[in-house]
Specification:
The chain has about 425 residues and is of the alpha+beta class. It is built from eleven helices and 20 strands. The chain has one domain: FAD/NAD(P)-binding domain (3-Layer(bba) Sandwich), CATH 3.50.50.60.
């Protein structure tokens, strides 16, 4: 694709490709930073959603960590989330398929850290809506269209939208998900490893109350998790083989409820399906390059991870906060707006987040490999490992700090809250 040479000031300082949870958070955080208030932002999303209806809870949910809560608060999105959509959980119980849930279980409790909870279960559609609302500003222009062309020129990036409009920007932020069009258009390859696993999601009512506790049992084909919701239901994320997931999706509600209860060893008693069900394939993905001159990747466009530890969107929120902090610090040190699109600044972000994300992805992938395995010797190792960790308060504390997002090299807004 050929563009005319740019001989004028770019239309925007930053064009964000993707108005999902992470892309919208980048825009909202820039809007909240005094050093960056002057930046002109384009936010490109195929369809901007309306406020979700009523108090019903969508079947796609995220376990939002303490770190992400602080980021969303700074962005102005957290107060926009209705209390009915923020389901805190104070405890987590993890056990192996060869054990009953009362035996050899690993138990985490927020009270042992002096924290009010371990996080919140929130529907993805409400998360996206809240950060989009928080990003509303006279300097944020929305483009309801898909990206169809992108070239990175010496003077600016040139973007073509599917509706025919063309815009220019000093910098493009690729926040358009695991199948990132912007990443593909600039020629950055992702290393993708399909897990040969599919996640089934739905909501259920259980015979016994969930007690604001997340319950997770590791089965040979993958974990099944019960995530507590505010209305008494639990959100189910059941990772299994693609073939088994296809069978589960086709079951009637009674049969599916019985299958979920059996898979969870009746930890919460009988189960009744109380929502539609859906499924999606799982993969591990990571890019080697987070940046190019005038281009940077955040969230799932840069990395995707297994959902068993609930880290996916939390890593994306940390990307957003880290990128905005790098921009703010550069401006405070005297860097020009143009300098924010150049490699010396962008590589500070890349070094920071690539190191943290690589460690997180390796940890989650290792846990999945260890627990999604029916080898007898490894099964013994798992059960012994769970018992040992349960008896080591410091090890449990370290794992909980990591899950809360309060360990590692964190953005300032996470450390200072």
């Amino acid at each position: 694709m050929t563009y005319q040479a740019i001989n004028h000031t770019p239309d925007f300082d930053i064009a964000i490709c993707g108005g999902g949870m992470v892309g919208a958070t980048v825009a909202a955080l820039i809007r909240s930073e005094p050093q960056l208030r002057e930046l002109r932002i384009a936010l490109i999303e195929a369809r901007f959603p309306n406020q979700p209806p009523g108090n019903d809870i969508d079947i796609r949910v995220s376990a939002v960590s303490r770190a992400s809560q602080r980021i969303l608060t700074r962005a102005g999105a957290w107060p926009l989330l209705p209390a009915a959509q923020r389901a805190p959980y104070g405890d987590m119980v993890v056990w192996d398929a060869r054990s009953q849930h009362g035996e050899n279980a690993l138990r985490f409790s927020a009270s042992s850290l002096g924290e009010p909870d371990l996080g919140h279960i929130i529907a993805n559609n409400w998360l996206q809506w809240s950060v989009l609302e928080a990003s509303r500003d006279e300097r944020v222009t929305r483009f309801a269209s898909e990206l169809s062309g992108l070239t990175l020129e010496a003077q600016a990036a040139q973007l073509k939208l599917a509706d025919g409009r063309r815009i220019t920007a000093r910098l493009v932020v690729g926040a358009d998900g695991a199948r990132s069009i912007s990443r593909e258009l600039v020629g950055i390859a992702a290393r993708i490893k399909p897990y040969q696993q599919t996640a089934l999601v739905t909501h259920v009512r259980t015979e016994h109350p969930h007690q604001q506790t997340a319950w997770q049992r590791f089965l040979p084909a993958g974990p099944i998790a019960f995530l507590p919701l505010n209305d008494g239901r639990s959100s189910i994320v059941w990772t299994t083989t693609p073939e088994h997931a296809a069978e589960l999706v086709q079951m009637d509600d009674t049969a599916l409820g019985e299958a979920i209860a059996t898979a969870s060893d009746y930890a919460l008693g009988d189960v009744a399906v109380a929502a539609p069900r859906g499924s999606f394939p799982l993969q591990l993905a990571q890019v080697d390059e987070y940046t190019r001159q005038r281009f940077v990747l955040v969230g799932d466009a840069a990395h995707t991870v297994h959902p068993l530890a609930g880290q996916g969107v939390n890593l994306g929120f940390m990307d957003a906060a880290s990128l905005v902090q790098v921009f703010s610090e550069a401006r405070a040190a005297g860097a020009s707006v143009e300098a924010l699109s150049e490699l010396p600044v962008l590589r500070r972000y890349e070094r920071w987040r690539k190191t943290e994300n690589t460690a997180a992805l390796a940890l989650v992938d290792g846990i999945n490999r260890l627990f999604s395995n029916d080898t007898q010797s490894i099964g013994v190792l798992r059960r012994v490992g769970l018992r040992v960790i349960e008896q080591l308060p410091m090890a449990k504390r370290m794992l909980m700090q990591r899950a809360l997002g309060l360990a590692g090299d964190r953005p300032a807004i996470v450390r200072q809250a």
